[in-house]
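User: I want to check something. If I give you two sequences, will you return the structure for each one separately, not as a complex?

Assistant: Yes, each is folded on its own. Here is the first sequence with its structure:
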Amino acid sequence: MMSPRKSKEHSQAEASGLVLSKKDVARLEREDRRARETAKPVTGLRRVFAQIQSDRKETLTQPGATGWNRPGGGPVGFVERPYELQGTTVQLCGYWPFIAGSGVDLVGAPLGVDLRRRSLVCADPISWFTSELIRNPSAFVLGQPGLGKSSLVKRMVAVLLDWGIIPMALSDARPDYVDLIRAADGQVIEFAPGRAHINPMDMSAFAAALADVKNENAREEGLNDLRTQQLSLMSGLVAMFARRSLEPHETTILSHAIRTLDPNLTTPALIPDLTEFIQSRPATLRTLTLTHEDEDAYDARVQGLLDALISMGPDGLYGNLFSRRTSAHIIPGKPVVFDVSGVNENDTVLMAAVQSLCWNLGTVTVATEKILTTDRGIPPKHYLLVMDELWKVLRASDQMVYFVDSLTRLNRGRGIGQIMITHTMNDLKLSSGTLTDVAWGFVNRSEMVFLGGLAPDEMGNLETVFALSDTEKSWITDWTDDSGGGVGTERRPHTGKFILKTGKRPGIPFKVLQVAAEVAVTETNQAWKPRPIT
């Protein structure tokens, strides 16, 4: 159908007797078709293309929302508009809990990328505590072996070290942190039979440091604390080797003998010296044991104590490990790691004794330095205590459970942050319900928890404690399958994936991304690496 104007022209041509050529007819039909298309409303893709052409004309002289839309301008092809939902609690109740969590502040060590938002995730227990995001500078890391727990912790340690926080790995049993501390020009102290010696009664280095304190009251308080730590440590070690709790008269004998042999904490006695002194039946000890002139009664009273001391001495199972002068003292203000990888893991008594000794020395170092910095009027240093393979510590001795409990309760006041690492919540199920409850307190007081891959039956009551959503639980269980894929795929796709939980708030899923400089100090499979043949 032709338009009215074209129809009129065609009728006039017929009335005048003129014959239109095929070219004229085709021209008239084209003009008629264009007129009809112009009269139609522009809809659908035609409207979109028309808008694009219009927008492009406008951006030839100035950039638009997606950049310069002209040759060489490089405009963004597509920008997705973020969606937003808003409604009442009744309307949006199905969207709770928000499993993706909210955006996290860029506070702390940069850990990796958010698995949902692709944004940067930053966190560590000390930075979040000082920024008042959490109330306790403590973190707990859970995950099955080989899924990146050590790499996560080493990232936080390395960044905090650059920010002035001093790391202390006081019982490295694998070892995992020796390479990192050595790379940071820190102190590596080996402690194992045949390698080094530590005298558990040696507080001389700390006492010498306190001798320069000008404040007399602070100096005396520090020396009293050293004496208390010395006696408490020795009592605990002897009890471990005796495999029982010490009787009141036995702790009295130990205290008096140590004070007599080392009155000023400057001449530390050795285990053989202590044993010989008790065996000599001094009058003061006979009086304290209420045996007086009865030597046979005295010998009976001290027999159990002497048995434990002899087993710790050079004639015992561990040789000179505890019965020679200390090979190396902790240097205050310097990163330090105790390499106890040479200790037999199956010897629970020795493992508990070594760990107790190392951790006590670490806490004494921090307490002494705090007194020194306060006396000198300089800012105190802050420390990060790393407790890896926590299950070995807790199962070594019941006393270690209470020792770790005291550390987690008091570290905030001492200026110490802490990171505890273990495989599953089942590691905290100990020999009795009382000990298990104490161990669960470690998790409850750790407001920052990193959850890696866990089997469904290994999560314990994490669901109750942290209000895990179904999606979060599916992530955790899926991440245990780290077998990788075929050619061209990532071999271990779930390594380094964690959920950061703070209380019962929605978690933040992220993946730790390593940089090249970290590879050399984060490899925990060194035992499987080929060594050059010499």
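And separately, the second sequence with its own structure:
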Amino acid sequence: MELDHALWRLFQGYEEDAFARLGPHRRGDGYVVSVLWPGASAVVLVDDRGEIEGRRLYRGGIFEIVLDAERFDPRYRLRIEGPCRWEGRDPYSFWPQLGELDRHLFAEGQHRRLDEVFGAQVRDVDGCRGTLFSLWAPNARRVAVVGDFNGWDERRHPLRFHPGCGLWEIFLPGVAEGALYKFSLTEQDGSRRLRTDPLGRFFEQPPGNAAIVVGPPSYVWGDGDWMDRRRKSDAASRPLAIYEIHLGSWKRHFDGRLYSYGDLARTLVPYVREMGFTHVEFLPPAEHPFYGSWGYLTTGYFAPTSRYGDPDGFKELVDAFHRAGIGVLVDWVPAHFPKDDWGLARFDGTALYEHDDPRRGEQPQWGTKIFNYGRNEVRNFLVASALCWCRHYHVDGFRVDAVASMLYLDYSREMGQWTPNRYGGRENLEAVDFLRHFHDVLSEEFPDVFTVAEESTAWPGVSRPTSLGGLGFTFKWNMGWMHDVLTYFGLDPLYRSYRHENLTFGLLYAFSERYVLPLSHDEVVHLKGSLWRRMAGDGWRKAAQMRLLLAFMTAYPGKKLLFMGGEFGQEGEWNHDGELDWPSLQNPLHEGIRLCCRDLLSLYGEEKALWEQDHVWAGFSWIDCEDRSQSVLSWVRSDGEGHPVVFVGNFTPEIRRGYRMGLPTGGPWKERFNSDAAWYGGSSVGNLGRVEAEDRPFHGRSASAVLTLPPLGGLILTPESPE
């Protein structure tokens, strides 16, 4: 009677230990096979000796088959008769499939290949093809897998529990690639909730949120040459010009449909190559339910979003960029996650991935949850996510979002809304340890992959190695530079002499970190207006200042990042529900900005002085930073061998004729770039491509030249090589 009661509890979905009741078990001198299949009219055991029909215990679908020990074959099959006929191996006849080492590494937080072991894994077990489902839910009373293979019935396939590590598992024969699935979790209070797989590698398109079983990797990569070159390169001493992209709104089909990964491989890649960017950066490509979050509310940390295709499609896009000689960065979001009730929030009925205390576990500014960085399994989950993008999708780097929100316990909180660390401070020590651990593991597994921090505070050593006490990032966004420069360009030139320090102050700290200069998506949304609209003046002046801004950024110390649309001065604010304003390129002013950007990127790649010593004082020196009255700035960049490149910018609409400026050497200099050139839509004021430097000291230099500075224009000069 006790066994019958347990089987009845299984049928109702309450029994917690399904493997103790279902499948084959010894009874006396023989075996009994218990089967639960709601709706079945008959169950038949099939083996090499024939068939045995099971005895119905409950009309709803509980059966048992009794065999003597000599008759029992553990590879028996079941045939289910009823509305949906089925035949296959019994899932409850298999031994545990998660190995002891995998379970140990997971519990220790040291499993670097979570996505290759846990979640849904298609494999052969004992000569049978199927899918192993596993899940971490240590505080759940019961876990079952549901999907289109079992009619989404929560009673059919409860999982086996491993109490030492909190993992659940079941191997389902016959479940193949393409199957949709979720997990049904019974919480301690008896309530049930459907959850998607945290380790899912592919999901149905929103608003659906079921995971999709993915087979073993089969994509054949063609980027071997790129990967070989990457292993020999150092990102800090190479040119880095990043084109930041939101995949869904760069360009669309005429009817508004999103481009697929394949469409982007055929159109975006040649465009980026023609422009001359060295890298692209995708706003978070991981799966996310709300399109308007641009990917920053991530739910699928191991899965490229299905909006544009399947995982192989994403690989095709990355592969195409690599074969074109262009690197790929992805935005990665380990700072927070959304509260969707089918996602990570209170996953097993408890604060599993987040802190239970909302003063630690919730981000009030965004209405999201914060990861518990002090928990081994959570650290493991996040680190394994990053390693997955490197290993399976060949990404070259990560831009880590919202690092400041991770570092400070009082980030966007009022007094009383946060708790101090164990020393009474505001620093999130667990997050600091996590970031260092993440970089240590990444440098071991993929030393040629680099990271960029979106970090807006004065936290010291963000881009310093962990061995020297830093956080380990390769680069840090220079948010102060971006704010100061855009504020300056928004001023009427009449008042710029009073804010000259907006352009010069950044050099006081320019070499304290390894910086990326961002003109990012954050600056062209939320009613801030586009870069074009933030420039002061009429259309001609806006275009001139866009060109000057691009020249200023190109010559300034630091790597470069430009959000899509900025390369041609899109007039409207970015709209993720549309595409860029490509028709505006019919306007010569906008096409001129694009051509200007293209030529600057070409020059940037050619001149080592513009990038080789980006992060040390030896690569930069002022010519004149004090010409406040005329709003003119000039400096020298140099490479490791001392070869110079000179930038001079006139930030007013007045032509500066007869402007004497010191130069590093005498003799002829080429005017390599003039942002006021006619083919860019400018007024063609300049120096006819060449200036002659006299041996006349000026600005503390041994030589000088008299220049004509174009209105709202920037010049880049290089010494003319003797023929």
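Because they were folded independently, the notes below concern the second chain alone. The first helix runs from residue 2 to 12. The chain has a mean pLDDT of 95.
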